[in-house]
Amino acid sequence: MAHNSPSQPCAFILFGATGDLARRKLLPALFRLFCENLQPEKFAVIGFALPDQKHPEYGDFVRAALTEFVPDKERLSCSLDDFIAATSFVPANFTDGEGYQRLKAEMDRVEKERETLGNRLYYMATPPSLVPDILNQLSAASLTTQSAVQTPWTRIIAEKPFGIDRDSARRLTDLFHKVVTEEQVFRIDHYLGKDAVQDVSILRFANSLFEPLWNRGYIEQVQITVAETLGVERRGGYFDAMGETRDMVQSHALQVLALVAMEPPNSFAAKAIREEKSKVLEAMRPLSSHYAVRGQYGPGKDPDGNPVPGYRGEQSVPHDSNTDTFMAARMEIESWRWAGVPFYIRAGKRLPRQVTEVNIQFKGAPLALFRGSTRRPEPNRLKLRIQPDAEISLVVELKRPGTLRDLVPVELDMYYQETFDAPLRDAYERLLVDALAGDAVLFMREDEIDAAWRVVDPLLAYWRSEPADFPNYAAGSWGPAAADELIARDGRSWFN
Ligand code: BG6
What we know:
The protein is of the alpha/beta class. 34% of the residues lie in helices and 20% in strands. The chain has helices spanning 20-35, 58-69, 80-85, 97-114, 131-140, 166-179, 195-205, 236-242, 244-261, 270-282, 416-420, 427-437, 446-465, 481-488; strands at residues 10-15, 43-49, 87-91, 120-124, 154-158, 185-187, 219-227, 292-295, 297-298, 300-301, 307-308, 326-331, 343-348, 355-362, 381-387, 391-399, 407-415, 473-474. A hairpin with a 3-residue loop joins strand 15 (381-387) and strand 16. It starts with 9 loop residues before the first strand and ends in an 8-residue tail after the last helix. The relative contact order is 0.14.
């Protein structure tokens, strides 16, 4: 999909350098890029945050993070000490102007010592509420330039959620545009960095087999499931203000849907692909409560059978929280290609299995030719499993050997792990490589975000005004009964 041009020297400034995302994902990803020589030759990481209480020295924080989250680091051919030597830290509060002066001094030092030419990639790995402050401070301290490509360039990676509704996302975009141009903003959705998600487009457009069938004439329904077994862990404070619909559906699930449903782009350049994804999201009918179900888990069991508390008993979650940890919806795309084809989406925490999967079910065979068979042939189904074990499979009907008419559905399978004999690269690594190279294909443009909020906003507003009858599913189950009823109304059921 995105091709990586060689990246230029630069400094990588990590806001929220002592946070969970930095610890679990970003520092490990940067370390791997460092080990595999995928980062620029002249490069430096500058952390910006309040120091971690347990590891006041940033080098110790980095070491602890990499020890915990890069389990195979002994096999990587580079030294942790070298990586730490390329890393520095500015202890500061995000709202403190003086901290940005120290950041400026640190960037000057790094630019001289590491010859990073004034190119800067900022990463906002902070709670979303802090982003406006950081932008204002960067602008006040003149720490940005106006180019995404010409040295000295500035690029800013912004984490999701981008706003909490359409209005706030628009205000945030306006603020970004006061400081930098749209080309300089890299809105990250890490699902787009997953190999199996990129393969949705490759499967469709590098093969001639599927595209003629990829429309309302042949496709009966599409289901997208994003199921997690985890609860909200230590992120209760953040999650409670968001809920599953914002956290997983407005972003990840709708991005996957857009890739499944988009028209063939003119090229695989950022502009062309984002244009097509945006058109899909704009053609979606905004969600109403009639076609959506919300849920919140109560006490139950994890996949190993151990008892787990309900959502309201999680750390930092209010005891009467009205926040959704599950949502299911029937979505429609009002376009020539998709009119009348339902797209069912389901996302939830504390479900029985971790699985992200797209199921595309084709219409049944036009004629029941095999009348004497023991059962009706099932319609064909293309399954794109994104995780945990990425797989593409096509379910077709065949007959059981030795019999004449005993039809059985069988899966023609391709498992990534077996076929490519290599572990899948973490999505963040892939996206960092692209951002370093200035390639925005896998990042979201302002209009995509706007259109995605347009889809979920009315539903969220309605839900806010109506208290829910929570909890309504047990941890370890497939969500509330209403989710099954939602799809049963159409005479269908979820592919579990
Ligand atoms: C994040 C959400 O964006 O994605 C989390 O904020 C969620 O709530 C996570 O757990 C899931 O990511 P992945 O890659 O494990 O499916």
